[in-house]
Amino acid sequence: MRTILLFFTLLGLKAGTRVVVFLSKIFMPIIKKTDLHKVTISNIKIAFSERNHSFQSNLANESICNSLASFYETLYVWSRGPETSEQHIKKIKNRYLFDFNRQQPQLLFSFHNRSIDFLLSWIITKKPCFTMYTKFKNRFINDYVVKFRSFNHSSPVEANLSGVKQMLIHLKENGTVNIAADQVPKDGLGQYSTFFGQKCYSTNIVSTLSKRININPTLIFLSKGEVGYEIVFKSTSSDILGVDGANIMHQIFEHEILNKPEEYAWEYKKYRKVKENSNIYK
Question: At residue 102, does pLDDT exceed 80?
Fold first, then answer.
């Protein structure tokens, strides 16, 4: 598996992502006929309903190029191991918000901005971390990724009630947990809230776990700057621990996404579990 990934990422990170973006632009007429574009443009039309068609279309194209580049970033770090991420992280904003010494529980939450596995790589090289994941259908790929995410005594847990319990136990033992909290959870593991003004079914795990251990979660996400990648930490208020925690979380996401909307992965069917949204992705 590693040999295959190395072959597909021979160009390295910088040159490889540039080539992916270049090829994505060339083949955009073909990509526009796929579900990738259909879902992306549908979500962008919801988030930027007040903007004109030209803006929406251009943003969809940029987002798709960045999403495909992010996929390459994931393959790159999978092929070379978590420790390789360190050399590409050129800046860490609000570094003081990260507990390097495991003196207290820390709940990190993120959204799909660039490669989640690239971000996770940096975290697990600093300290063991529990993270929630959904199984890959291919067992060979799943085993490889689980092994990757288990670096430094870290532990990927499944996105179910058992996984939530494991994360809570780890937090009570002063452990670190990271959750990519912008995806649609399984039935019973979330609540209805709004994202860019549209009703959706969202995870409430961040607010639930934070309330159980009485700490404010910390936002963390990956972005690409002019000279390399940067990791951003942001503190949160106690409002996210309340019953409206999912909406507060989405407001935090929206604020950061609007700074660089082209970096966000708009291709997820965020609104799919709401009956009145049944025609959004058709």
Answer: no
Q: Is residue 158 part of a domain?
A: yes
Question: pTM higher than 0.90 for the full model?
Answer: yes
Find residue 223's DSSP bridge partners. 230
> 84: which residues sit within 8 A by CB, 6+ positions away?
76, 77, 121
Evaluate whether residue 180 is within a structural domain.
Answer: yes
Residue 263 located in a structural domain: yes
Q: How many structural domains are present in the chain?
A: 1
Which amino acid, residue 6?
L
β-strand pairing of 218-224 with 229-234:
antiparallel
Cα 199 to chain center, whole Å? 20
Task: Give the tens place of pLDDT for each residue, 33-83.
Answer: 999 999 999 999 999 999 999 999 999 999 999 999 999 999 999 999 999
In the numeric block, the tokens 């207290």 are attached to 104
Amino acid in position 84: T
Query: Dihedral angle at the C-alpha atoms of 234, 160, 199, 181, nearest 10 degrees?
Result: 20
Domain with 141 in it: 2-275
8 Å CB contact between 185 and 202: yes
Give the E-state strand segments of the chain in sequence order: 89-93, 106-110, 129-133, 155-158, 176-180, 190-195, 198-203, 218-224, 229-234
Distance CA 240, CA 237 (A): 6
pLDDT at 126 over 90: yes
Q: Classify residue 145: in a domain, yes or no.
A: yes
Secondary structure, 3-state, 235-282: CCCHHHHCCCHHHHHHHHHHHHHCCCHHHECCCCCCCCCCHHHCCCCC
Question: What is the percent of the chain where pLDDT is above 90?
Answer: 87
